[in-house]
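Ticket #4471: structure export looks truncated?
Reporter: QA, pipeline team
Priority: medium

Steps to reproduce: submit the single chain below to the structure queue and open the exported record.
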Amino acid sequence: MNRRTLLIGASALGLAAFGGGAFFLNRQRQAEAEAVAAANPAVDPALLVRPHSPSFGPEDAPVTLVEFFDPSCEACRAYHPVVEEIRRMFPYQVRIVFRYTLFHEGSDEAARILEAARMQNKFEPVLDALFEEQPGWAVHGSPEMDVAWEIAANAGLDVERAETDKLFPGITGTLNQDMADVEALGIRQTPTFFLNGKRLENFSAESLIADVRFAVENA
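Actual output as written to the record:
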């Protein structure tokens, strides 16, 4: 057996091992997804996505990721870049929907800032800014909402107009409906994610991306 034959043989073994590993991981991911599906049956879609819900990605995307989030929640801040990465990775395959889950003092005001920003087509930059500078305003027990408004203004929000718009009855209706759905779904912590109608449990940043990737590849 010459050197060339040995190299070809080694390469073939390497490829076989890689293929076997990928196959095993895919089967493992499928088994995990089936276990999650069995433990968490799909819920009523109407409770997850409302016509008023802020969303990104095609409405007819094969995969929908719904995040129940609180603007004052540190974990939601930590997961925000992960959600942004999912948007970047799957711009046409995944629709991301945001639902308000107002568990902290000051969260109602923060959500009104975001909804007022949405009326000015500034939802995304204001959301990014509020999360980025969250430690400066979302102080538990003593939120600094004046600081939150300043952050939103620096992100491009017309504050004078928003101060009026935040009282728009439609915004109150949005927040009330979201919290009614939070209660109906039994959500007790944020962020809570639903992938194609099924709640994700005990997720990490890596597993969230992996679950979305698996859903995309099997849509």
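Status: closed, not a bug. The export was complete when the record was re-opened. Leaving a note from the reviewer for reference: The chain has a mean pLDDT of 89.
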